[in-house]
Specification:
This protein has 384 residues and is an alpha/beta fold. It is 47% helix and 18% strand.
Amino acid sequence: MAAAKYFFLIKRLFFMMLLLVLVAGVCSGCGEDKPVLIGFSGPLKGKYADLGVQGRNGARLALEMVNARGGVDGRPLAMVVHNDNGSIEGALKADERMMGQGVVAVIGHFLSVQSLAAVEKFADRPLILISPTTSTPLLSGLKDIFFRVMPSNENWAAALASFAASEMGAPSVLMIMDADNKGYTATFCEAFAHRYVQLGGEASGEFHFFSNSKGWEQAVVDRIAVNKPQALLVAASASDAASLARRVRLAGETLPIMITPSSYTKELVALAGSAVEGVITSMSYDENSEATEFLAFKNAYLNRFGTDPQFAAAFAYDAILALADALGRTGGKSTGLAKALTEVRDIPGSMGPFTLDENGDVNRTHFVVTVRNRALKTLSRVQE
């Protein structure tokens, strides 16, 4: 009896050890297929939703394409999406949650004021931000947690100033700025005014507003009647730029309107119609490009989402491609990712090949663009 009991215990122990070995082997195999988790933070509701929704779609398209090619180091990419409501508070909360979820990097943020706040708060945390649309020069040339695939807005502003001086007769310009996103709007207007004055133009004044305040559009119309500028530069969201354009035209004012690239979206035309006919800006996105890379991206986006892309979609697409390239050198891990991102070279992005420099910044070709017959049209290529 004792020998039989002893044999039974030995046999049971053997099978338990065998089971543990098998389970360990299965878990090891599962670990190799575990997705690389990427965060996305953008404004999916509210006045900046045109940026966030297009950005999310562009990021998804690129992620699906990377996975179709085998993923990164044999592992698929997966994306967790957070709506940050276009606010600083929403962005910081989203970043905290995504760090807790174990993302290797965050595609975001879409507003300069959000990116500035996140870089300041999380400078010493394990967070990598890759922004599709943040263009404030306040984050240029820094070795930090912030990377971007959209250039600094200083070059765009200078290109727009040059166009206004040479092609529009250097009219006196009243600059209208959204105070909710000063890291972007103020720096753009400052760079515009600096170059414009150099070229003999006159920046005749500034008007700051908060879009949630009532009557700011009429206050601008009143300012126009008093100061009599010959043109406007509106640094605001697409919805606010559209609202102001409608009010200005209803007041009988026909002066030219220039806008910042962030408001140059289809929502601008959808909301304002003929009121934004002829508005002008400069940016690094050419919707009329015939380049092979752009046509492939545009057709893939149209087939996937049933609508044409705009710049936020294109640059979010590029952000995923840059991240996937860097993750390929880190084995899908966050360790060493910051350095790997500065080594991104000649990625075949939506507008053609692009490269990130040692500070995580990018250079791109600039274009002067306008609204013509309610469609977005490119006027000229400005520079490399």
